[in-house]
Design a protein that fits this description.
The chain is built from eleven helices and 14 strands. It folds into two domains: 3-158, VC0802-like (2-Layer Sandwich), CATH 3.30.2130.30; 180-220 and 230-384, Vaccinia Virus protein VP39 (Rossmann fold). The chain is α/β, with parallel strands linked by helices. It has helices spanning 19-31, 47-56, 75-83, 111-130, 180-188, 207-216, 228-232, 236-249, 265-278, 317-331, 347-351, and strands at residues 8-14, 36-37, 40-45, 60-71, 96-104, 141-149, 152-158, 197-200, 257-262, 284-288, 302-305, 337-342, 357-363, 366-373. Bound molecules: S-adenosylmethionine.
Length: 387
């Protein structure tokens, strides 16, 4: 019997600005209305729920298991609180223990000192339990997070491993790529549905079109990757049930109208490589094309994109012209909607249109704005064609 067989306090984290979308995802996975506090959504569940959250949540950063919560205003209180956890039920004797610390509005704030006290308490408990002088730390990695918020310490164990934005399909780097979790959040928050048209005119490495195809085919974002919990919890049944659920939910027999364009041929090659790895190569169309030449025969559709950006827009004529021409291209497309991620406060000025709605987002810690321009929603699929 291990703690992993019983009830667990599960904590799902997501990036600032997209928690509401993660909450919606949790609800549609059957976990009800879970309140969000500081980007964390906590609820009681089982190891199967840990596996499902890791497998199915498109917009979450990480899934953790909370092991202890206690008041800690001194290092002694911190040590004692950690020492009271029964690590013998959680860790093998050779676990490679890593600790990350965070502190907000707390008396203990020196992160490296917090980290080392937490690690010392874990090691002391483990050596006492196993009758050892020191831990070999030669085994699997176990990553803990100690977060202090207003003097309340929370110790949690990571179950995801690599951040959940790493779906496994994007292995090569492109200029300013969008996080997969962020792309999924924007798509889930847009009018895009599997029977609608989507264009990314600045597709780069293909993240937005690929995430849209994964959503449209109901393909679990974690289907092609591994998770930390697999290594340290012997749960072949749990994982195979969840992988089977993912297989059963995926829609294979479908045709989509998802298009990605980029001026750089290397980006198009990369997009196809990534789409192939994601299993959606035949469902998306990528093509080398200048955004200025993008047209569509459909009256309704959705643009979701992050155009190039620069720090000094005021000095960048090229960027201003690009945004101006992008605005013109957008307005040439009948009743389309656009969701544009930008970092420049002057974006709307050059784009030539005020956004109907704006939302602050963080793409890999960079603050940006999602500009939303709404067209009329289509009545039914056939109405989409202008011909
Ligand atoms: C910020 S990146 C997009 C990153 C992408 N969302 C991803 O996740 O990889 C902007 C892209 O715009 C492309 N680009 C620049 N000028 C363009 C133009 N006139 N027409 C089409 N693409 C252009 C660049 O080659 C670059 O790939």
């Amino acid at each position: 019997m291990s703690i992993f067989d019983g009830e667990l306090k599960i904590s799902v984290s997501s990036a600032s600005g997209i928690e509401a979308i993660t909450k919606r995802e949790l609800k549609s996975l059957g976990y009800g209305d879970i309140p969000s506090y500081n980007g964390r959504m906590n609820f009681i569940g089982s190891m199967e729920d840990v596996a499902r959250c890791n497998m199915f949540l498109r917009t979450a950063n990480r899934v953790r298991i909370i092991l202890a919560e206690f008041k800690a205003e001194t290092f002694d209180e911190l040590f004692d609180g950690i020492y009271s956890v029964d690590f013998g039920e959680i860790l093998p004797f050779d676990a490679n223990v890593a600790v990350e610390a965070k502190s907000v509005k707390s008396k203990l704030f020196a992160l490296s000192a917090i980290q080392s006290v937490v690690k010392k308490a874990i090691v002391k408990k483990m050596t006492a339990k196993n009758g050892l002088v020191s831990l070999p730390e030669s085994g699997e990695r176990y990553s803990f997070e100690l977060s202090l918020v207003e003097d309340t310490a929370t110790l949690s164990l990571d179950t995801s491993g690599d951040g959940l934005h790493k779906r496994g399909y994007r292995q090569k780097v492109w200029i300013a790529p969008m996080r997969e979790t962020m792309a999924a959040a924007i798509i889930l928050n847009s009018f895009y549905r599997a029977d609608r048209v989507l264009i990314d005119p600045f597709c780069g490495s293909g993240t937005i079109p690929i995430e849209a195809a994964l959503i449209a085919t109901n393909t679990a974002p974690g289907i092609n990757r591994n998770f930390a919990f697999e290594k340290f919890y012997n749960a072949p049944d749990v994982l195979s049930r969840v992988r089977q659920e993912a297989e059963d939910k995926a829609v294979r027999d479908i045709s989509l109208r998802i298009y990605g364009y980029d001026i750089d041929a290397r980006a198009i090659k990369l997009s196809y490589e990534h789409a192939e790895r994601a299993g959606v190569k035949n469902l998306v169309h990528f093509e080398k094309r200048d955004m200025r030449d993008v047209t569509s025969r459909y009256a309704h559709g959705i643009i979701i994109t992050n155009p190039p950006y620069g720090e000094r827009l005021s000095g960048g004529e090229e960027l201003k012209n690009l945004y101006r021409d992008f605005g013109k291209m957008f307005r040439s497309l009948d009743e389309w909607s656009a969701y544009v991620v930008g970092t420049s406060p002057a974006f709307e000025k050059y784009f030539g249109q005020k956004a109907d709605k704006k939302r602050k987002l963080y793409n890999s810690e960079i603050e940006c704005t999602l500009y939303q321009f709404f067209g009329a929603p289509p009545k039914k699929r056939d109405d989409n064609l202008t011909e």
